[in-house]
Amino acid sequence: MPATSEQMHLSSDARGTRIDKWLWAVRLFKTRTLAAEACRKGKVRVRENLVKASREIKIGDVIEVQLSDLTRTVRVIRNLENRVGAKSVADFAEDLTPVGEYLRQIENRRLAAPKRPEGAGRPTKKERRDLDAFKEGPFEF
């Protein structure tokens, strides 16, 4: 009989999970490769120590991840092996990131908004696409 997703999650609690896999599974990174690369570049810390992608995490570990202009801080609630839906992330990770970090990110993006000189005419297709990409932005709350 195949194991249910709940059983797979519980079985991983006992043995721990690689940090790159966990960061990918709780949707802090789009791919596991990006999570491992962040570990290699020194952008992931557990208890103030830089970690390798192969480090196993434990329940209660506090992880700091430097994402471009935002430092996310999360606490491990449960280990898991498979990627979960966005609504389920709260069951596995507690977001400890100060609100000020999010506000600073929003302010930085607002200041970096593309500006066009007045009277420059219509934006080119590329400028319009850049503006649309900026408006959509990767804001995660």
Question: Structural class of the helix and strand makeup?
Answer: alpha+beta
Beta fraction of the residues?
15-25%
Please state the CA-atom Rg, rounded to the nearest Å.
Answer: 19 Å
In CATH, the homologous superfamily goes by the name: RNA-binding S4 domain
Order of helices and strands: HEHHEEEEEEHH
User: How many DSSP E strands?
Assistant: 7
Low-confidence stretches: 7-12
Query: What's the overall average pLDDT, rounded?
Result: 84
- How many structural domains does the protein architecture include? 1
Named at the architecture level, the CATH assignment is Roll
User: How far is it from the N-terminal to the C-terminal residue, by CA?
Assistant: 38 Å
The quaternary state of the protein chains shown equals single chain
Query: In this structure, how is the largest beta sheet organized?
Result: 5 strands, antiparallel
- The order of strands across the largest sheet is 3-2-5-6-7
